[in-house]
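Quick one:
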Amino acid sequence: MDNPFKTILVTSAGTGEGKSTTLANLAVAIAQTGMQVLIIDCDLRKPVQHKVFELPNKQGLTNILVEQLPLESAVQFTRVNNLSVLTSGPIPPNPSELLGCERMKGLLQQLKNKYDTVLIDSPPTVAVTDAAVLSAQVDGVILVLRSGVAKIDMAKQAKEQIEKANGKIIGTVLYGVNYSGEDYQYYYYYGEKKGRNLNA
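Output:
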């Protein structure tokens, strides 16, 4: 059965809500099922996926879009089987314009044909237009809201901006819920409990 959601954007309403951590853990979980997964770090303002997976970020998405660097030269393997990352590359002066260009649309289609699942990390929705621009180019959007941090009005605004851009919200994640009474921790991609939390 074909996967109707091959390209998925993960965003949040505001900053520090855990979208990047949520995306990384989701990517690992999918890769562990045997599917070929690619993460694209489209947060061209505050990229963190290269830090999560301990990868260099000298070249990446922006080099493909601006310099027409071959895809094969930019995608990096991780230590997780079946999981690759296309880091952001150098931060550009015009992120929204770059993410909305025709070359970006063509790249997403190319990757959609190459991988089982493509997960896209974007900036928060309310602060800038990047997420809205991308939401129209993907199969679905996951909105991450941090427990105790997310404001109802901001969450509604994020939802409205995505839908106005013809994006399709396929799920919402409530991040950082305290089940144990201890400080929230997450399981990193080696299966080890880590105290470090990027909160991005």
